[in-house]
């Protein structure tokens, strides 16, 4: 046997991976935390040891280890980044940061990977309130610094590179296709639209609810808008149902039953709900934000419409079976680009350098 053959036959050694994420599903609704949770679990299933360093408490049922770095008071995310400087990462083969690693410029592990899940500079353009806008700008500068500190920096959608054009590598967020798929669920008996997000803020649930009541219900009287949200008011427009917060299995069932999924965010770096909805067989409608344009391939695999025309786009999909079926099929095929399994494999290659 040649030396080359001998090396090729050696088993690939599992890695010890440290992940940094201020957010986790146990303490925050922010999508980055959910993506970190899913990716860490998948890496453990692939045989690696993963510890997540976070301000949030442990997530029930998580397969990975948890290292609690608890913060209190104001400016917690910035103080969390400073606290990470005191952590000894030397026992790990790779450090994968999803935020707050901008002070870790001294080499601490063989491989340091950073994922930019969007751009805080971009978000500052859409957020309301001077204080929050200033905070986003400061975090934007921290993202630039982090992209220079890490060995490899990744963005989750091509347009995110607008603010860090030197970052070349794109790895999208991942959806666990073993759970998020059409399954055997039958679509709802009446026309239905699903929304996942907040009533206020950049997710713009309120605007969708009023568009639905004004433009859709007048033409499709039995249509229903089902909203997975926790901040909706008690009084709702006609045809709108609020579901509150759902567990994973309940959310997947809602995706599967929905005829149409709509998330009209003013900004998404990626927009994992778009990919989840596609994978579960819902036709996707979105406003043309950065993430939606990428996930839908500029509207090829979904429908993009400005905020004031959302109702028209939804009404067309609900009333045109052929259009809805074609959009659903295109989205389902597109979702194969975002499987969690393929995303984890690409990160594995980065961890090994």
From TrEMBL:
GO molecular function: glycosyltransferase activity
Occurrences of domain Glycosyltransferase subfamily 4-like N-terminal (ranges): 31-179
CDD domains named among the record's database cross-references: GT4_PimA-like
Matching Pfam families: Glyco_trans_1_4, Glyco_transf_4
Keyword vocabulary terms for this entry: Glycosyltransferase, Transferase
Keyword Plastid included in the entry's annotation: no
Superkingdom assignment: Bacteria
Gene3D superfamilies, alphabetized: Glycogen Phosphorylase B
Name of the protein in question: Glycosyltransferase involved in cell wall bisynthesis
